[in-house]
Amino acid sequence: MKIAVLDINGKDTGRKANLSDDVFAIEPNEHAVYLDVKQYLAHQRQGTHKAKERAEIAGSTRKIKKQKGTGTARAGSIKSPVFRGGGRIFGPRPRDYAQKLNKNLKRLARKSALTLKSKENAILVVEDFDFDTPKTKDFVQVLKAFGLENKKSLIVLGDSNKGVYLSSRNFKGSEVITNSELSTYKILNANSVVLLEGSLEGIESNLNK
C-alpha cells in the first residue's frame, strides 16, 4: 500500500512510502484487539487497595453486652462489621492485576489496530524531523500543519528523539513514542497516528517476527 510522505509543513514531498499489507491491510481480529486493550488497562492498575477486616481492627475484645435479655440482637465484639468503625466484610486486598497474552496474539492485535486506522485514513507518514531547541510552540506548529492541534494524536518515532519528546511533553493532546513502544490501546486511543519515515521499518520488523 502506497501513501504520500508529508514534510513538517504538511506539504506533499512527492515521495511515496510503502506500507506493508501484512501490517496495515490484514483482516482485523476484533477479539485479539479486545484482549490486548484489556491487558493494557489491567496493567495500569496498581492493585494497592486495602481495607481492614475484622481481625485487623484495633479495639477491645470484650463482649459489649450480655447475650440475652436486652431485646436486641446479640453482639460479641465492637470490631464487628455491623458497627461503625468495625472491620469491613470481604474488603479489598492488595493484588496483581497482570494478565498474560502470547506474543503472536499481541502482534495480531497491533496489526489489526493499524489496519483499522488505515481504513479510516487516520495514518499519516511524515519525513523525519527534529528541533534544535525543545519548544512546545514549535511542536504545536507541526500539529497545526497536519490539522491535529485539537485532536488526540500519536507520533511514532524511529529512534528516541529528545528534541521532539521534550517539545511534546507539555502538550496533553499528543503523545510521542518510539516504534518499540507501540501498543494497541495507544493506536486506538488516538484520532490520528503520525508515523515518521524512520519508524516504518522498525514497526514492520517488530510485527512480522
Automatic annotation (TrEMBL):
Residues spanning the signal sequence: none
A GO biological process held by the record: translation
Region (Disordered) residue spans: 46-77
Origin: domain of life: Bacteria
Keyword terms of this UniProt record: Ribonucleoprotein, Ribosomal protein, RNA-binding, rRNA-binding
GO CC terms, sorted: ribonucleoprotein complex; ribosome
Gene Ontology terms, MF aspect: rRNA binding; structural constituent of ribosome
Record has Ribosomal protein as a keyword: yes
Reported function: Forms part of the polypeptide exit tunnel. One of the primary rRNA binding proteins, this protein initially binds near the 5'-end of the 23S rRNA. It is important during the early stages of 50S assembly. It makes multiple contacts with different domains of the 23S rRNA in the assembled 50S subunit and ribosome.
Protein family (similarity comment): Belongs to the universal ribosomal protein uL4 family.
Subunit-level organization: Part of the 50S ribosomal subunit.
Protein name: Large ribosomal subunit protein uL4
